[in-house]
Amino acid sequence: MSKSVGKPLGQVWVTRAAPGAQATAERLRAAGLSPLVAPLLRIVEVGADLALRPGEALAFTSSAAVRAFAARSAARGVRVYAVGEATAETARAAGFKDVRTGEGDVAALGGLILRDSPAGGVAHLAGEDRAGDLEGALKAAGLGARTVAIYRTVAAKDAPTEVAAALASGRLEAVALHSPKAASALAQLAEREPLASALPRMRAIGLSPACLQPLEHLPFAARRAAERPTDAALIAALRPLSGGG
After folding, report:
1. Of 88, 160, 165, 185, which has the fewest CB atoms closer than 10 Å, so is most exposed?
2. DSSP strands (E only) in the chain
3. Mean pLDDT of all residues in the chain?
4. What CATH number should be reported for the domain holding residue 133?
């Protein structure tokens, strides 16, 4: 169902884990949208040996990995490869100076690293659940690489109470998915009320097509992937739903 021109979009459910959820919410507010922060994931750090080898560069495929590493290691004088601009911004904010940015996916990040071929190889700091095999791709091309799992994401077992209240009021009209794992958690919750009956009037917006795949069998009013894996592109995907163009 199309919206009338000028009618504002209702609340947008931000499902990503904190503190990234708050950053996304701020960007949504700045764009004139109304966020509902109710994460479906939480980050749990795991024990890992963070000692770096001589000349080794770091690769990060999530902002969560940057924050987990920066909280436990003082190393800042190493080169960092970030999967996309959001992760790069987090790395710079954490104090890393030499930050090189990929185009938003693991394959592009691997290509960037291989073009530089850091002499000491690469340590990929990541979550226990990862999209793609950066280590394998780098090793296959002859570059030393290792993966260090530094955190895990834990999915919510029940829909947050804030979501139930927003659904009851009819205010919740869209949900933003920043990861396939968040989408999988949503898919499980969507089999139960009150979420199940609300799906036909809700839109699902994914940071990438992979973020929408777990939802393909569900009767959302619409599903749309951002053109690039950034909050700015996600907001651009939301704008046609608001009626404001």
Report:
1. 165
2. 11-14, 34-37, 41-45, 57-60, 80-82, 99-101, 122-127, 145-155, 172-177, 203-206, 222-225
3. 90
4. 3.40.50.10090
